[in-house]
Amino acid sequence: MNIVCLDMEGVLVPEIWIAFSEESGIPELRRTTRDEPDYDKLMKWRLGILKEHGLGLKEIQAVIAKIDPLPGAKEFLDQLRSQTQVVILSDTFEQFAKPLMEKLGWPAIFCNTLEVAENGEITGYKMRCEQSKLTTVRALQSMGFDTIAAGDSFNDLGMIQASKAGFLFKSTDAIKAAHPELPAFEEFGDLLRAIEGALD
Length: 200
Known about the structure:
Elements: E1 2-6, H1 16-24, H2 39-53, H3 57-64, H4 73-81, E2 85-93, H5 94-103, E3 108-116, E4 122-126, H6 132-142, E5 146-151, H7 157-162, E6 165-169, H8 173-178, E7 184-185, H9 188-199
Helix pairs in contact: 3-5, 4-9
């Protein structure tokens, strides 16, 4: 039995931190897992910047409320879900993901949780498990699933490489150049056809 594992940000929806960077006028917050492979380092750096500027969860959620899925993402997901099981594996947080999942038709998502003080300050975060995407793919495989994975960033490579079929989608030139063995796509139609081919 197959299950498709998709990254969320950069694949189905725009990057939340980039949108927040633009809205808040803080260019440093544009940095994402496409630029920084060490997620823990990236998040600690982000939380430091938020604290320095006195920004918290409600300011980020106000920006997320305005974010729409990438053009064609919901249709792609609907088509895929009519053919096979799909789960979104994301390093984002429950507090960020909910309004986006609503716009995508409530697909299943496994993500992390923010630690938030009463005043709304984000004080830390709790990862669901170590190397969450790769760990989840291996757990699904141990339950008898064949996994097919797609993502765009450094933190997606583990799940892509460990799967029966894996694809880069809307990735960076640097990641594509470093992994020429991975098929890379820019359009949802092309990714859908590649996944459908792997489902056979």
